[in-house]
Amino acid sequence: MEVEEGCEAQLVPRDRRPDALGDLRVLPDETICAILVHLTPRDVARLSCVSSVMYILCNEEPLWMSLCLNNINGPLQYKGSWKQTALHQLQLPNEYEEPCRKPLHFDGFNSLFLYRRFYRCYTTLDGFSFENGNVERKKDLSLEEFHLVYDGQKPVLLSGLADTWSARHTWTTDQLLLNYGDTAFKISQRSSQKITMKFRDYISYVQIQHDEDPLYIFDDKFGEVAPGLLKDYSVPHLFQEDFFDVLDRDQRPPFRWLIIGPERSGASWHVDPALTSAWNTLLCGRKRWALYPPGRVPLGVIVHVNEEDGDVNVDTPSSLQWWLDFYPLLADKDKPIECTQLPGETIFVPSGWWHCVLNLETTVAVTQNFVNSRNFEFVCLDMSPGYRHKGVCRAGLLALDGGSFEDTKSCAEDCSSYSDLTRKEKRVRLCEPAEDSNYENAKNGASESYNLSNQEFSYDISFLAMFLDKERDHYNSLWSSGNCIGQRELRGWLWKLWVSKPGQRDLIWKGACLALNAGKWSECVGEICSFHELPFPSDGERLPVGTGSNPVYLVADHVIKLYVEGGLEASLHALGTELEFYSLLCKVNSPLKNHIPDVLASGILSLENGSYSIVPWDGKGVPDVIANCNLIPENCKEVDFPFGVWSKQQFEYRKAGMSIHESDNPGGSSRIWPFIITKRCKGKIFAELRDTLSWEDLLNLASFLGEQLRNLHILPLPSSNDSRFSDIKQKIGLPCGNGFMEAVTDKPCIPVEWEFFIKTLTRKKKDVCSRLTKWGDPIPNTLIEKVDEYIPDDFGKLLNTIEGEDGPHKVCKPCSWIHSDIMDDNIHMETCCVNSCSIGNTPDAGLMDNSYVNGYNGTGGGKSWRPGHILDFSDLSISDPICDVIPIHLDVFRGDPRLLKRFLESYRLPLVRRIPYLESVESGSKFGRLSYLAMCYCILHEENILGAIFSLWKELRVAKSWEEVEETVWGELNDYTGFC
User: Does residue 475 lie in a domain region?
Assistant: First the structure.
């Protein structure tokens, strides 16, 4: 017996894991595999040689899939295995590939984690389908019944909606391969890289792959790359109301997707973007769906809410892993609503519903998201600044315990507690009065009439709106990067709805109050109108107009603008600088003043103890309401405009070193708002006319802008030689991270105006890579990696500084007033007769009085349009004139070099000073190229200028260098020398 036991012991292989992993043996296999994903393919290959267990871990196909997808560059071609595909990407010689075809085998190692993953890679899903789901099935559903029973309330599975589509017969993999084999589609996968595959390569992959989470086509641009597919289907009659339809195709967020995936692929748990609703029609194969109502976080899912900007991220297992590992743990009462979708069926997913999809076989489907009357307010709510409401909309009252719900994941190990966890009452944590003196404010910030601690979660707009941060300035607060459109686009969308859907203005107003806090701004405008004895806004004038960052209202013959962008101190500098600028125009009698709206009044509105008060302010002196906020600039008594341009330059320089929290609403109350009233222009803004203007009109516009920018850039600068600047470096120098003053330039005696400019650029360079990475597509990753070597270390070189005969350095670049924001919605056009439409001729005959957009509607046959006014000078600064060319060329001219050339011909000012008796910058240097300066300013801009560039010039998305982008976009500048 003892002998037999000894022999049996000799047959059991020794566990090789402790010796093979050394100190790493304390880590579970799952953790080690998660670490390996962050290595390079070459490092993984080296690590595989360390020991037998490392060899096993480093040769896992899921690992090589991640390595391959994270390092992809160009269209993907699958080479039979992910390791072979990765080696092919590295372009290794053939002799290095041979050893990889002879895997080694080791005994004495077992891993439940690797076994489960291996099982998921090779399992089949024949038994996952079932006939009796609990999603209601309907045929021939009427629009009335849909709105009454299902829209915004619960999912439904519909048949018959796609019976007449040609896609029912043509959207099979064989037919699509025949028609679109060489078309590259987007691939959805958990990767930071944008992945595309030609359809024939994708089908080859589908036929041989054994991945636990296979690649699947999820392409929102399929209509652009394969327009014929759009003719094969139509939006079902139940879903045709879509408020995003008022936007042009290039303005609206992604809304339709072609979805093709093999068995085991699918979409993991998520809530659709912006709380939109969706319909999904299956044309081929079978899908299994699972759904939970809003606020019910599925088991195994972790929700993270960024408390800075409200962005919501979800950590979730793959759909296959969830069904295999988590679904069996659920009690019957905790199981999701689910069904198997068959070819020809359409499923409707309401706003806010969690859903997960698993493809049981190769499937082809089309889906669209939409905003209609039922979910419009939810979409507006979700786009509103703040974080509490975003989390509550998705995770219910669990969100009020924090932004991360780690405890849901731990339930996979103890399913008995799941029911209690997801259903237990989560209360709002309100401080008791004894603990927090601001108790009443905190409670009233949620609701004045509700005691939230007695409420259960309800997916009701009135309930959810209580979690908005009412104190946030909705024009000024940090915007969530996860929002489907930006703040500018949101404001434009709501205004277009207001104009195009007058019958639904009550609903649009409710949405605008959620997204823009429109009620608050309307109340402010009412107070201003009352004080200045202006007519009150009519019903059609209740909503702010345009897309700018400050609320602007059109009231009869007047334009009222409230300054809120950047917080109170920034707003005071914006208005103070604008008023100083207007004063200068009149003082020097510049012709530019004829093309700027007349200023009728200006002042400061404040709210204190529930009462509004207004103090007129012309920019001179410091009103008491501002002095009480401790916002008095240094030595303000020595200048006429204490919040003028030089004070603004100092403020912007200080702000460049602030964190997000510091700069979100820096310096002062959110209950004080500077404002200005100007005369309303007649005509329309250029943005509304762009597509209707003749080429001659556009050329006239380019000449007009060149002439007016010339008038702007030759204006004298206000004196900066007062005592405020004598010790500028000591007073406002910002320390680097190590506590020492940052080195800005090695050129002494740089003028003060350039000191601000150069130091601000230096600040912006420090996080340029992370900022571009955050912006992401369409900025190419290959260029982001090269950006630091393209931008200079010494920004003083951008000034073309040269040493003069007397020793001090001179700057060969002009410094001037710049507008900074001449875009398509800041140019006003007027009608004129065709024969008399020329720059400088401004007859008023034929102008109509109909209110329209940013002015008065002017229409009529036989008429043309000519530029009349430039609007919005709140972004004025002192800087390089080239900075004004950037928005004009990219936004107004849309990159057309012919218009840029006409602009420069009219501009006629040198963009670099020529000093005959001095040597210029070194011959052939990049610093001598105007195109290089413009490109650097684009890269360092606080707005996503690069996104606009790569959207206009799509061919540059495959550019190999920044020099290639520079030449394409700004090459025309290098031929310009000026005429002075």
Answer: no
